[in-house]
Amino acid sequence: MLVSEKSPPSTRTVTPPPLKKVKAEPMSVEPAPPPPPIFFGSAPPPSPGPARPPPPLQAPTMSMPRVNPLAPAQPTLPFLPLFNQTAAQRRVSVEYSAQFTGPSHAGTWVVRCIVNGIPKGEGKGSSKQTAKEEAARQAFYAMGWT
After folding, report:
1. What range defines the domain where residue 115 resides?
2. What is the predicted pLDDT for the residue at 79?
3. What span, in angstroms and rounded, lies between the C-alpha atoms of 90 and 87?
4. How far apart are the first and last CA of the chain?
5. Which segments of the chain have a pLDDT < 50?
6. Which of 26, 48, 144, 146 is deepest in the core (most CB within 10 A)?
7. Are 139 and 83 in contact (CB under 8 A)?
8. Does the residue 135 lie in any domain?
9. Taking Cα atoms as reference points, which of 86, 101, 97, 104 lies closest to residue 121?
10. Residues near 35 by beta carbon (within 8 Å), at least 6 away in sequence
11. Are 102 and 108 in contact (CB under 8 A)?
12. Compositional bias of type Pro residues: which residue ranges (predicted)?
């Protein structure tokens, strides 16, 4: 506030400060673009493109074991716990019979997985554990547990 110095001390005139000049800009009429979608934990879904025909089906070969496309796609993880857990949930009995052949320094383990008295898988390997894993994997697929 400004005080006039010429006025007597008892009567003071108070003048308000001058108003600030504001530039007025024209507002645009265009709406703001929508924000991009937020994805938590995975990449955004692919945009639909031109439809492609599905690839032709190939006949299964006898040399390769039949792979179930709905099975867990983790071939390096232990398969034995998954098989044993599923067998326990479905209340079936599982037995493993192991046999060692060859010299002690370079032998081969053969493990058979027997489910409810029926052999369902056989695994071979340089260690008992790898042979048992393979037998459990074959039995899992043979039982149709996907």
Report:
1. 94-143
2. 82
3. 5
4. 83
5. none
6. 146
7. yes
8. yes
9. 97
10. none
11. yes
12. 31-58
